[in-house]
Specification:
The chain is mainly α. It has helices spanning about 10-45, 60-75, 80-90, 90-95, 115-120, 135-150, 160-175, 180-185, 190-195.
């Protein structure tokens, strides 16, 4: 039983599976909180279908994710209204909106600047209990995005600093709403499992 060239301890494999499952709830709760808070502020600034407003200046990567979400809704026969579109957009989309911005959709436009089009006009308000910059706000969320993706793809997470990752979930949730943080903290088993941390010094992939 292993994740690569070398087998790993069965107890570690079992623990990795358990801790991955335990993180699912907190990560899902955080994703919903982040999505809803960011959508609320963008809608207040640019309208309910803000993602179609050119003033947002979404970059090529964000527009590609948006197209994929719309295509998925069409295949399922769902309405293309804001509630459905917003719910269909992946966590990576929302985290990317806290980044610097990237390539424009076509060469005639300048590189996107999310600091000026998204963060300052709207997104800083999505984290009312935080006084950090866009870059500082993005950093823990991007790390949690990576953790979420590894768990979703059934990859090992035991080598990560999971206690720190869990604290990041609670911290970011607290930036949005302390009650959300309290709910997430109450409804999971992460701390319990972290007390029984079966790790090994080195694992080869």
């Amino acid at each position: 039983m292993g994740y690569g060239a070398e087998p790993i301890d069965e107890a570690l494999y079992t623990w990795n599976t358990a801790i991955s499952a335990a993180f699912y709830g907190p990560l899902q709760g955080l994703e919903v909180a982040v999505r809803n808070a960011m959508h609320q502020q963008l809608a207040a600034k640019y309208g309910a279908d803000w993602y179609n407003n050119h003033a947002c200046g979404l970059d090529a990567g964000a527009l590609r994710r948006l197209e994929q979400a719309v295509a998925s809704l069409k295949r399922g026969g769902y309405p293309l209204d804001p509630p459905h579109v917003v719910a269909e957009l992946p966590f990576g989309f929302w985290v990317s909106l806290l980044g610097p911005g990237g390539k424009p959709p076509s060469p005639e436009f300048r590189k996107r600047n999310y600091e000026m089009t998204l963060w300052r006009p709207a997104l800083f308000k999505a984290f009312p209990h935080c006084r950090l910059s866009r870059r500082e706000t993005h950093k823990p969320l991007n790390s949690l995005r990576t953790l979420r993706n590894r768990i979703a793809h059934h990859e090992p997470v035991f080598y990560r600093n999971l206690a720190q990752e869990y604290q990041s979930i609670l911290t970011v949730a607290d930036w949005i709403c302390p009650r959300t943080r309290a709910w997430i903290e109450h409804h999971n088993r992460v701390r319990e499992l972290l007390k029984h941390d079966w790790r090994i010094d080195q694992v080869y992939f």
